[in-house]
Amino acid sequence: MTTPVQLSFYQHSLLVLLLGMVVGSLLADYFLLPTQQAGTSLLITLIKWLPLLLLSPLLKKGDANSYIWFAYLLIPYFCWSVLKGFAPAMAGWIGIIESLLLVMLFTLAISCARFKKQLQ
Questions:
Q1: Rounded to 5 degrees, what angle do the CA atoms 74, 76, 78 make?
Q2: Closest CA to 14 of 95, 94, 103, 117
Q3: Helix or strand or coil: residue 19?
Q4: Residue 1 three-state SS
Q5: Stretch among 18-22, 34-38, 79-83, 90-94 having the lowest mean pLDDT
Q6: 3-state secondary structure 40-104
Q7: What average pLDDT is seen over the chain?
Q8: DSSP 8-state code for residue 3
Q9: Could you give the angle at the alpha carbon of 113 between the alpha carbons of 107 and 114, nearest 5°?
Q10: Which own/partner pairs from 76-79 qualify as long-range (CB within 8 Å, at least 24 positions apart)?
Q11: Residue 18: its pLDDT value, please?
Q12: For 46-75, what is each residue's pLDDT tens digit?
């Protein structure tokens, strides 16, 4: 049986992990690229994560379908991170870590959707 406290914990964990991934991605792009390309890379990274960040307010007060759409939206990000995992040196390790974190985000989103439907 799911409790509202458990759902709240999962929701907060999802939002914290999403924010952590965006900040981590910005820091990784900033430190891995030459200084001439850092500004452009940070802008591209922000644009890359923009759809997920725009959907995050709906997750806080949305219904189960918002979490399901969020999970579907994570699939291309997972594919890109897996491809990034094949890069040499540190960029490959960052891609692997990003892939694992995206799996956790996907699992949290689907769990939140399931818990929301159980509580309705």
A1: 70
A2: 103
A3: helix
A4: coil
A5: 34-38
A6: HHHHHHHHHHHHHHHHHHHHHHCCHHHHHHHHHHHHHHHHHHHHHCCCCHHHHHHHHHHHHHHHH
A7: 88
A8: -
A9: 90
A10: 77/52, 77/102, 78/102, 78/103, 78/106
A11: 92
A12: 888 899 888 888 888 778 999 999 999 999
Q: How far apart are CA 9 and CA 58, in angstroms?
A: 16
Instruction: State the Cα angle at 81 between 75 and 83, rounded to 5°.
Output: 110
Closest CA to 64 of 119, 8, 101, 107: 119
Here the tokens at position 48 are: 């890359």
Give pLDDT, residue 36.
74
Supply the pTM of this predicted model. 0.88
Burial 82-118 (b: 16+ CB within 10 A, else e): eebbeeeeeeeebbebbbebbeebbebbbbbbbbbee
Token output for 9: 């914990």
Residue tagged 């692997």 (tokens) = 96
pLDDT of residue 1: 65
